[in-house]
Every structure is written in structure tokens, then in C-alpha cells.
Amino acid sequence: MLMNPVEFFRSLPKKECPECGQHMDEQAESYLMECDHCLSKKEE
Fold it and tell me: Sorted alphabetically, which Pfam families does this protein's record hold (predicted)?
């Protein structure tokens, strides 16, 4: 049986920063993998 698409996306785990492991708030048009804190460290 096929899963309802809305339920599928709700059941996905939260996005996690690979650098520090912090959970990130996902945004529809964002393809960033690191959190803002880790990204700011890379720019320095």
C-alpha cells in the first residue's frame, strides 16, 4: 500500500548538521548541509 505523501514527509528525520550534529530548521529553497554556526566558522 502506498503511503500518503504528507505522512511520508512528516516521518522523515530532522535534518542534522554533519559538522556539529545540531538539528537544523529546513527551508524549502535551501540546499545547505551545514548549520549557520558552522558556515560562519568557514567564512573566517
Answer: YhfH (PF14149)
